Structures are given as C-alpha cells and as structure tokens.
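Methods — Computational structure assignment.
A single polypeptide chain was analysed. Its primary sequence is given first, followed by the predicted tertiary structure written as structure tokens.
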Amino acid sequence: MASAPVWRPSAGAKSLPRAARRDASGSLPNPGVAGLGVASAAPRAIPRLKRRAEFLRVAGAGRKFVAPGLILQVLRRDPASHPPSGTKACQAGAAPRIGFTASRKVGIAVARNRARRRLRAAVAEIMPHCAAPGHDYVLVARSATLTRPYSALVEDLKTALRRLGVFREPPVGEELGGAGRGSK
C-alpha cells in the first residue's frame, strides 16, 4: 500500500513576519500606557441607522434640505420611546443617529462607497458638536458629492442643519475641523 507524502513546514516558516505579528497581538499591553486613559480620549462613535424601515420612517415623516453636495433628512424621535432618564440607555437614546445612503444615480459601487466615505468624514467633523440630540438624520449622496471640495461639503452640512433648525453652536473652547481631511 502506498502512502501519501506528508507535508512538513520548511525551516524558515517559524520566522515569517505574519507569525511575528500574530504573536505580538497576543502580548500584554504596556503597563505604563494602560493608566493614561487613552481610550477615553477617543471620540465616541455616533449611533447609526441600519434598517431599511428606519430610513423609510425618516424619509416619509421627516423634513429635508437639498444642498449641492448632499441631501439631509431629519426626523425628531418620539420621546415616549426613550428609556427612563439618568440611565445609560437614555443617554444613548438622546444621541443623534445617522444613516448614509447613495443611490445608483451617483455612479458605480466604487463611486457610491467614496461618496459615503466623504459624507461620513463630514459627519464625524460636524455632527458630534453641532447636531441636536434626539433626532434621526439621513444623508443622501448626490453626484456632486464626489467632485465637490471637502470644505464646501462641510459647509453644505452646516447649512442644512441650520435650515432644518437642528444646528446647535459648539461649546466654547471646542474647535471644529480637527478630524477632517481638508483641515491640515
């Protein structure tokens, strides 16, 4: 009876960079860095709208503003659906929720993804400071979202928030534009 040859790893397989990265990720964190609270300094992620029904509810019952670079739809959430005040769930319920969409009118999949990325960058720069809590927001990409300068896209978003009555001035001492691509 013939047996199949047995595969043996080569002698250099133990020193692959991929294996080194895997080993490094399993190591313990540096104790000097752990006490600095670096994780708390990072901005919290804005809750997202993910289900089709949420997008349709905002589009059907909300208000909208059309700007050259984007369309913003806003709907105030029902306060009766919020959990009791003082709980973490209540604080998360009051935070603005945001959804992004780009139809096939914008272009092929690569173009739609790029448009959504540009909208996400503008939202990350503006919404945590300037969006009124307790609202659902849907940003719809337009074909001009791809070619419009980033600073103009941010201004479109600010204008849309102001026109829809959900813009709030950022707290004193807090700067806008720290995280955007065009702010360097």
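Note: The chain has eight helices and four strands.
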